[in-house]
């Protein structure tokens, strides 16, 4: 029997709650489709940090290295500053394993009540392709004059041709593969003087290699407005680390909840494991209540299956999600307007498999 | 008769079209309220750049200096790279005149069809307070290895205590003055390692001086989603130059159009002139067609009147806008779902004064 080793990092807050459901789904679907999944659990979290002063052990990255994939919940919790927790766990995994593509589908699932009127949300169906290793997410910089009136913080963002070109090429190839070749660049070259004109320039140059892909570019401010006003316009949107982050929360917002949105952190060359995690965070405000929506985590698990080559199983998970959401009396969590617990929605999906 | 000197910079694209209407409104309301407005026109634009190699003359800033206020249309047009046009005109005015507050109301006007269902947009009524002089909008940085595989762009953002504190204090004072003291900080301290934790830190420290102002903070990604999912939650949102920019386009998007949104670039100490401009840009895609919505420019003119101390006249302009939009058969421009021309909507507002 083919079998895969999956590193499981539930993390903080609702991360642990939604992970339970995703693992149940994976167990069920793997036995249904006749392959094995071996889960190795890593309880790295803000609690670990409070006990040990580290989010993960010094050899944490090495311990993850030999897995076929990583399934992550959410990282960050009050009591540990966010830049400490995230730069101690999530961000190093993305970078050390060169998961340079963050791929995030934005799609209206059946049965959900989207916030836009006139069914405008119904046509929301696009992908955000986000640069995932450099850019605005940067530890380069520092502070001078600490505590004085002259205090000043410098924040440096770096954009290499290597990382910019490879994410743009991925986005062009992906658009082409979709059969809906319409690619939008998120930019802000009117305000951010060096980096964003550079993105415009690379986009223009690489687009010449893809004459069959229609392109447009929008400044991030108006692009955000258009996500609300004309979301049906978009097929694939590519952007920097920060812009991709913003657009991949806003997009699911336009479908009614970010609780369902998944993401894949992909190392396309498969030299290193890829990582799958929901777009939502650890949600301290609802953690421990058992009301978190598990679909973002379950959909992420479906993307993991696709990545492993188990596309049929992945598609089956998606059908189960859609069947449950589309059925009358589905046990919806509060973010979807229902009153079901995390486990009830999870069980319904497990049973639909 | 009291009289004011206003510098008028229509700029590019639809900037010139909407400016015509705003000036008609200002002419009418000033004669109605018995004060004088003397307009001095500056035809600085991308056309100027193509003719002279500069967006404005070398002594441009000095020529504006002695005016009571500046009314600007929009800057930027295809053929001149956006970073050239904006850093040659709009951004230097903001900085040289230390217009460190960008104040942007987001409010649903009567008669508009907002994109959100269930009337959720009806309660949208908040302000974005944006840092307007430094931060991510920066010419610091550059490129190395140009044209090689090792090419790399460095983009530096700087955040001084002086600029950070003064915008935060402005936002706290403004929230307090509103009588709805609920202030939200836009941050991204989980990803942007130096600058955003600094904003969190200054926000926490200054909030101690304002115990009567309720505060919260949200990372920019989830904040954008909440602008769509729970827009009624917000009263005042304060953020950096980039985050303020994004939120002040997205907010009006949630009210149905960015064509109505105004902005004030304020030098609160009144050492220098302040500048008023719509949030929308020069919109090359519809420029020259006479279909641009003039309300963003007219509302900006109303904010200019407020700033001059002519609050009654400013309020009267707002009432005229609301009367026209709220009346059956109002001549709406295409972005509002109508088919009226810029001048027809402008005339209706002039007549309502
Ligand atoms: C034109 C551009 C530079 C400007 C900005 O980003 O500040 C505009 O988007 C705005 O919001 O006033
Ligand atoms: C938690 C945070 C650092 C992370 C990010 O900004 O990348 C999250 O928002 C995401 O989108 O995966």
UniProtKB/TrEMBL annotation, chains A, B:
<dbReference type="GO" id="GO:0046553">
    <property type="term" value="F:D-malate dehydrogenase (decarboxylating) (NAD+) activity"/>
</dbReference>
<keyword id="KW-0560">Oxidoreductase</keyword>
<keyword id="KW-0464">Manganese</keyword>
<comment type="similarity">
    <text>Belongs to the isocitrate and isopropylmalate dehydrogenases family.</text>
</comment>
<keyword id="KW-0479">Metal-binding</keyword>
<dbReference type="InterPro" id="IPR050501">
    <property type="entry name" value="ICDH/IPMDH"/>
</dbReference>
<keyword id="KW-0456">Lyase</keyword>
<dbReference type="GO" id="GO:0016829">
    <property type="term" value="F:lyase activity"/>
</dbReference>
<dbReference type="InterPro" id="IPR019818">
    <property type="entry name" value="IsoCit/isopropylmalate_DH_CS"/>
</dbReference>
<dbReference type="InterPro" id="IPR011829">
    <property type="entry name" value="TTC_DH"/>
</dbReference>
<protein>
    <recommendedName>
        <fullName>D-malate dehydrogenase (decarboxylating)</fullName>
        <ecNumber>1.1.1.83</ecNumber>
    </recommendedName>
</protein>
<feature type="domain" description="Isopropylmalate dehydrogenase-like">
    <location>
        <begin position="5"/>
        <end position="349"/>
    </location>
</feature>
<keyword id="KW-0520">NAD</keyword>
<dbReference type="Pfam" id="PF00180">
    <property type="entry name" value="Iso_dh"/>
</dbReference>
<dbReference type="GO" id="GO:0051287">
    <property type="term" value="F:NAD binding"/>
</dbReference>
<dbReference type="GO" id="GO:0000287">
    <property type="term" value="F:magnesium ion binding"/>
</dbReference>
<dbReference type="InterPro" id="IPR024084">
    <property type="entry name" value="IsoPropMal-DH-like_dom"/>
</dbReference>
């Amino acid at each position: 029997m083919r079998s895969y080793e999956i590193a499981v990092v539930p993390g903080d807050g609702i991360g642990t709650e939604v992970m339970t459901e995703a693992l149940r789904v994976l167990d069920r679907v793997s036995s249904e489709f006749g392959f094995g999944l071996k889960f190795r659990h890593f309880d790295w979290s803000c609690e670990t940090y409070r006990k040990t002063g580290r989010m993960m052990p010094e050899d944490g990255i090495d311990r993850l290295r030999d897995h076929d994939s990583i399934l992550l919940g959410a990282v960050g919790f009050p009591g540990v500053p966010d830049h400490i927790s995230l730069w101690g766990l999530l961000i190093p995994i993305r970078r050390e394993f060169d998961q340079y593509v963050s791929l995030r589908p934005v799609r209206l699932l059946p049965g959900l009540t989207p916030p836009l009127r006139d069914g405008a949300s119904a046509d929301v169906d696009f992908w955000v392709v986000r640069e995932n290793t450099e850019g605005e997410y940067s530890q380069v910089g520092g502070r001078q004059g600490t505590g004085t009136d002259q205090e000043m913080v410098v924040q440096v963002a770096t954009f290499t041709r290597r990382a910019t070109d490879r994410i743009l090429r991925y986005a062009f190839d992906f658009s082409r593969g979709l059969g809906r070749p319409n690619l939008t660049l998120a930019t802000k070259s009117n305000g951010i003087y060096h980096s964003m004109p550079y993105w415009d320039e690379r986009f223009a140059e690489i687009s010449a290699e893809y004459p069959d892909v229609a392109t447009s570019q929008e400044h991030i401010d108006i692009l955000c407005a258009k996500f609300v006003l004309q979301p049906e316009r978009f097929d694939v949107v590519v952007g920097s680390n920060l812009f991709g982050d913003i657009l991949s929360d806003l997009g699911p917002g336009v479908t009614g909840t970010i609780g369902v949105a998944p993401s894949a952190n992909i190392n396309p060359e498969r030299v290193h494991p890829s990582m799958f995690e929901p777009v939502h965070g650890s949600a301290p405000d609802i953690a421990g209540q058992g009301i978190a929506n598990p679909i973002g985590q379950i959909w992420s698990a479906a993307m993991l299956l696709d990545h492993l080559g188990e596309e049929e199983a992945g598609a089956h998970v998606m059908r189960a999600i859609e069947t449950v959401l589309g059925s009358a009396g589905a046990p919806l969590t509060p973010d979807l307007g229902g009153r079901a617990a995390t486990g009830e929605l999870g069980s319904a999906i497990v049973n639909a498999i």
